[in-house]
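quick one before i forget lol
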Amino acid sequence: MNMYNILICNIILSLSAIIIISLKNLFGKFISARCNYYIGFLLIFILIVPMVPKIGILQNICYDNMENITKSPKFFNIDNFESNNKDFYISVNKDYTVSFIIISVMLMRILILKISEIRLRKYTESRIYSEEFNKYCSVLKVNAQLYKSKSINSPISFGIIKKYVIIPDRKLKKKEFEIAVLHELTHHKHNDILINYILCILNAVYWFNPFVYMLIQNIRLGMEIYCDYSVIQQINNNIEYGNIILNFAADNKKYGAADCISGNGKHLRSRINKIIEYGDEYSKKVSRAVMAFFICITILTAICINSFGYAFEYNHINIPAAEIDLDNFFNGAKGTFVLYNQNSNEYMIYNKKLAYKRVSPDSTFKIPLALKGLEENIITANDNKMFWNGAENPFSQWNKNQNLNSAMKYSVNWYFQEIDNKLDKSEIINYLKYIDYGNKNVYGNKDYWLENSLKISPVEQIIFLKGFINNIYNFEEENINTVMKAIKLDNGLYGKTGTGMINGKINSGWFIGIAERGNNKYIFATRLENADGLAARDITVNILKFIIDN
């Protein structure tokens, strides 16, 4: 769970709740109950938006299955491959206490909701067969069952597929019975029971946000007012209806997932005022204008959440790719391998699900970061030395002055953090947007690329490297060559490892790079779960050697 995203999302939702409730109160006297009711659907949409993938993002990937990798063209020679047999990375410490509390309370509240539903079913103590009730069901086109119970004091309704209406087991006057069942059946007709379930779940998800709670209560009030208006249209007596509602409210209880005729006591005054005002004419033009206004607010809010507040996201890439079988090379390890042949413009992918999964780039981000440092003259091709500040590091190779080549070879974090520190956050954001790097999210702490907010998939790594070596970004050729020199591992082979470690446990290993043979270039990206970059590198080398041998 990305706590930064959750925080930003709830700040936006809180501000939206305050603005929307204020505007609804301002326009309340000029719009119809129906308009007010449908505005509630817009508010529900706003609350659901953070829990779904980003708007307009679809994954539509075309795969041409290949029976055997030996049908692939042969690639480069890496017999002279040499590299350090040690990977340099440090553990990122994360505290999951807040996430654990949020999820635990959310699940507990959902469990309470389920228990509430089970308790409601116990209230169906005896079924009533009523001609009048059946008549109302026929008129409203609702298939429901009527029960009575001694455990309740106010009529309630619940059930989505099998619909229930329960009235108190006491003598009700004819008009009380009529209004009670009409009100509850109207809730069923409007599908308010389903909406109420959704609101209960949203209330559980946002349990820590009082402004969202206010928003949900406002939606429920709109549902009750619209239901009141619909029933009054049936009986044509708003004063009598209001008196009966007040009588039921005198001894009311809350029933969780159910809809109750008297609703929330805090909103009863608003409902009674609306009931008294029944019959006032509302301009359809004003209602439509207000509805259009709230649709605009909803869209703007959704865009803000889309940009800053998503907890879940999926990348949008559409590439044709050949699926290959490399199980023998991964030997039970969970991972993915992606290869791009520049001359034939063909992709090959092993484990397509992981190939499109975004994770932290870890030290592979040092490639674009070095390029940005060169472009901004923080370092240059001829002068890229940085002096060690004397702070003790976990590796002796880090405790000395560095240039770009040594910093890349030993994956020296402090060297690249110095480059990062000399860049404004806005510069980095614009840079990542320009090169279309992953999710472009740098809103975490200063080490946003080390198991933090910045995420990228192996396929996106390939696309970035393709743009990098072909210089589609129009950077200085000298800077491209300088970075290529820094990541050179052998003749014709360039690459960078990356390892993610959280709280002392390795969770991800990268090896990305470029291989040359003649006038062709091959771009590769390997990622392993629960293994380091060195393991990813070794698997990659074995795969490439196999391709050469065949």
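fyi Confidence is low (pLDDT under 50) at residues 56-83.
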